[in-house]
Amino acid sequence: MFRSRSWFGGGLWKPKNPHSLEHLKYLYNVLSKNHTVSENNRGLLVETLRSIAEILIWGDQNDSSVFDFFLEKNMLSFFLRIMKQKCGSYVCVQLLQTLNILFENIRNETSLYYLLSNNHVNSIIVHKFDFSDEEVMAYYISFLKTLSLKLNVHTIHFFYNEVNEHTNDFPLYTEAIKFFNHTEGMVRIAVRTLTLNVYRVEDASMLAFIRDRTAAPYFSNLVWFIGNHIIELDTCVRNDADHQSQNRLSDLVAEHLDHLHYLNDILCLDIPDLNQVLTEHLLHKLLVPLYVYSLTRHKSQFFQTKEKKKHVSAVVSLFLLSQVFLIISHGPLVHTLAAIILKSDLDIIENGASKLLEEYTNVSAGDKIAFVQPQESLQKSLESLNETQSDEAVSEIEFTAADTIEKTTECELTDNPPSVEPSTSSNMSKTLPRPEVLNIDISNNTLNKIKNLNVTDEEKEQRLALESPLTPQQSSSDVQESLANKPFLEAILNALSSTENDYAALFSLCLLYALANNQGIKPEMLDLVLSPSQKTSTKNWYNEILVDRLIQIITLSCQTNTKVRLVTLDLSIKLLLQLVMSDGQSLLQDCHLAAIESAKEQSTSLLRNFYKSEDIFLDMFEDEYSELQKRPLNVEWLMMDSNILLPPTGTPMTGIEFSKRLPCGEVERARRAIRIFFLIRELSLTLSGQPETHLPLTNLATCVQVNNVLDLNNTDLISCTIVAKDGQKIRRFLVMDLIQIILVEPDTRKLGWGVAKLVGLLQDIEVTGDKDDSRCLHLTIHRPLSSSATNRVPLLSAKCILDDHIRCMAAKQRLTKGRIKARQKKMSQIARLLDIPTGIPHCPTPPNYTLLNVRQERTTGRGQKQKDHPRPMFTVNKVPGFAAQMRRDSSARSVAGQSAATGKRSDSSPNGKVCENGLKSREHSPKLPRPRSEEIPLEDMRSRNASLGKNVTCLPIAIQERIDVTITNTPPLSDTSPVLRKSSEETSFTSPQNQGEPKPRRKGQVETV
Amino acid sequence: MSYAYLFKYIIIGDTGVGKSCLLLQFTDKRFQPVHDLTIGVEFGARMITIDGKQIKLQIWDTAGQEAFRSITRSYYRGAAGALLVYDITRRETFNHLTTWLEDARQHSNSNMVIMLIGNKSDLDSRREVKREEGEAFAREHGLVFMETSAKTAANVEEAFINTAKEIYEKIQEGVFDINNEANGIKIGPQHSPTSPGGLAGTGGQGGAQGGGCC
């Protein structure tokens, strides 16, 4: 230490402590002795630079004199000097790392200011590193990003130099944006981060600089970059009918989303000037020419003269526009775009297009509404920006301003037809002397057009009355005409009624949904197009053309072998509700309502075909229900899925989610029928304002919960010892409810009462005997499907030891039957939901109504359950009734030696009625206490009759026969005679047809796959 | 410097859990962990060897960019591996893991390997999150778990390398589409780029040069 007392004398030898002022002095010495980078000192320099970073941060945190020395010696200038020697990536990377560490870790604000104060950092920024070196590039851009994170109103002045007019520049920003389209994704992200960090600094003069000098070149190049990306995406979709490049496509889609989110992030910073420029560029150079114009590509006469114009397919354009409206909410942008799509008519577009063509021949090509490459690359624009000083620069600004004016006038023609909303245009004209130019440029003809567009509310209403058919009386030809006049809206609506499949329809729905839900679009724009009318004169009207088409999709989806995917149906319903629900009331006209009710009827009959045809029908039914509840459709997520961009397919081998493809095989067709049933049922209930009372089949809230105290006097209790997997033994009493299995332990305070320690659903249990121990049962209780748990570890999986083998047999039987009963009960619930006739009048033994009332009370009082309140649920002596119920379904599994069952066998129906009996015993559990009228769920008999027409009478027969068949096909229930099976199978072939045709099929609908 | 593959990582987690310190600790061994020095960096690269193949790891810290949705989603998508870091001395950083994970799962490609890191294991006396809790969380969500200390460098190496191994295995299994750079994996250039003399760069081998001037 003695040798390094003074600033200058010290630092010739390396001190032992690397974290000390002495060490920095030593490093300084090394730097000053090695001005020139050579092969020999390269390693030494690198280590010196690295050590400097380390010691400076140590100093910043521990000893301020270290930093003072660094600044005093102006050590950053050494960095610059080394850098300028073209020293190769090895040294450069180290320099950049040191700088990164320096700016990342310095906590002391004053130190930071000093570091930035002498403009060395800006010199480093503008230094031309070897950017072809991946590592140099990565470190460089990270350095810039780190700096951008340090920007605030104080530090901005170190980076943006406004003092001297001639050096008016902002290298951190202008250097960074040159890499906006770098091939390396991480670099592009860093650039975007940096720009956002810059924009959010609230410094007026800096932002003015950004807007005046860099915004136009940057945004026009950005827009061109995005657009090219879109074209690539489109090519990918076109060339991939076989789902070969899902990965590539998913990247392209994600990349587009990234771009939109980036644009949205900029717009959300709410910098008026910047937003205005960005909005203009987006509308003129990308969204209108590339996205919107592509909607009508197939029939557009206005593009004939310019066939080479870039475009994407209509499907892709619908998809992309949906994304735009789902993500971006900047009012002036989305509102204008929505206006173009929803309101612009053919004349305007044609005129605009011809005007465009005129312009194309003489005026600069860069400023028309078209997707064209910017005149010069961003790099070039920015370089010229740096070169041109004072006078030149001023004239340049004027030039661009004039350009913008011309653009704006054009925009009046095609892009801003609904000048009804002043904010858009006023926003655009805020900084520009637009009006004068506007008057000079525009012909009388177009002026008239604009006048037409500036309609008053009254006029607008009149026009609306003409355009959208408000009354059912209006002929469809009018509808067609008005639509034909609005080519974009027409294209969107036409996509809804595609006959081939629902490929485009899904995107069309998404777009309409996105439009309807975008916060940036003013409600009056959507009035009567995508929302119920709010105006007094047309109150309670809705867009009938659209509703017609939506109902058409819903109807179509209920047919067998339909090509409508579940997600399309789901979205149609979502949109429909939005269109016709106003303050919780449905505005739907009778004819539309009837159509929906008939669709519901049809979906029910479709599902009847699958009722019981699968052993696991009940599980599927409940699984689908909980899936729908757990994962409601999220349109934004849907539109992130690139898979839907490829033509709809049926095979699950593509990895496409079930709801986004067509069903494959019988099981999936059943699942699909179940889901359709749920969806349309819910729609119907919502429209009629009724709550759902029948689903889910088990309302867990009304079930016994763990720690409930139960009155178990006079209840069948099975005492047993539960041996868990880890050998732990617990004494419990096993109780069964109609649907639940409950393990209780005696309540210490009340005799005869018990505390529920574990509850599960009887339907979810598995019981097996033990080969080696006749007193043992292996009991597994699975978790209910509706439980939120992601992993389906069984609730209980343990050995159950009973007192003796008789009790064990009895318990096994009761559990097995309890499971069957619980399942039958639910199956009969489903049967009622599906209007499958139940045979309660023929019930041989009267159900135990007293007992059932208990259960019913609990189910009807859903949601009002008092928790932890002792409930007298088992007060009724249920033994006789319970035994009787079990006996009736026991025919399939004869259990000998059960005294309870044998006595009443003779009660069951005569053998001659096997068919009927079989039907009864599985179609419904005996406990159906409700009057018949209540069992038919919420159904509009009128519409049902209307839709079913003549079939109404023969329907029940058909159903009965079909059910017989399904029963005979179910293994455990194979007690029906083979003869019967044969005869009923014949009828089963005809029965689906009987039900499948409630009304004549629509023309052009697809009937088979 | 040529490599067989380049893997891009991101580091995510609450602020102050020591992400950038972990990053520096791993990417540059020359920065010896010292008690009175907290030092981190937002970007780093390092070469490792797996199965006899040179693999370059590029690690990007996403700190400070949470305000912008576009940025976070882009980062997630561009990475092949993610280190999800919490601080064992601050329970709230552990509680936020679910949110981080949801975010990651939603935006990243499904093959991204996520490693859960409980950092600051040197501060055992101030521990608020038990090791078992971290293990349980990892098991539940199918992550690899490790407790590390950027201070003492304990397990830091292993955390990054194990993640790389898992990515490498996925490549061998053909799960990753390596021709698609958007996945955060890049196949190395055929020959070394311009860097002269095959120098070690700032990466791992740089440690050999530490104090070479004596």
TrEMBL record, chain A:
- Among the Pfam families in the record, one is FPL
User: Which part of the chain is the FPL domain?
Assistant: 49-199
**Compositional bias per record (Polar residues), positions renumbered to this chain:** 421-430, 470-479, 892-901, 968-977, 986-996
Record InterPro entries:
CLEC16A/TT9 (IPR039272), CLEC16A/TT9_C (IPR045820), CLEC16A/TT9_N (IPR019155)
State the signal peptide span. none
Q: Which UniProt keywords apply?
A: Autophagy
- Top-rank taxon of the source lineage equals Eukaryota
Q: Which residues form the CLEC16A/TT9 C-terminal domain?
A: 247-930
Using the UniProt annotation, give all residue ranges assigned to the region (Disordered): 406-437, 460-479, 886-942, 968-1009
Q: List the biased-composition ranges (Basic and acidic residues).
A: 919-942
The family this protein is said to belong to? Belongs to the CLEC16A/gop-1 family.
Q: What is this protein called?
A: Protein CLEC16A homolog isoform X1
UniProtKB/TrEMBL annotation, chain B:
Q: Where is the composition biased (Gly residues)?
A: 198-214
The record ties this protein, via PROSITE patterns, to: RAB (PS51419), RAS (PS51421), RHO (PS51420)
Q: Which GO terms describe its molecular function?
A: GTP binding; GTPase activity
| Protein localization | Endomembrane system; Golgi apparatus
Task: Tell me the segments the record calls region Disordered.
Answer: 191-214
* Predominant location: membrane
Would you name any one GO CC term?
Answer: Golgi apparatus
Its record classes its membrane topology as: Lipid-anchor
- InterPro entries per UniProt: P-loop_NTPase, Rab_GTPases_membrane_traffic, Small_GTP-bd, Small_GTPase
Keywords, A to Z, come to: ER-Golgi transport, Golgi apparatus, GTP-binding, Lipoprotein, Membrane, Nucleotide-binding, Prenylation, Protein transport, Transport
Name of the protein described by the UniProt record: Ras-related protein Rab-2
Originating species: Neodiprion lecontei
State the gene name recorded for this protein: LOC107217433
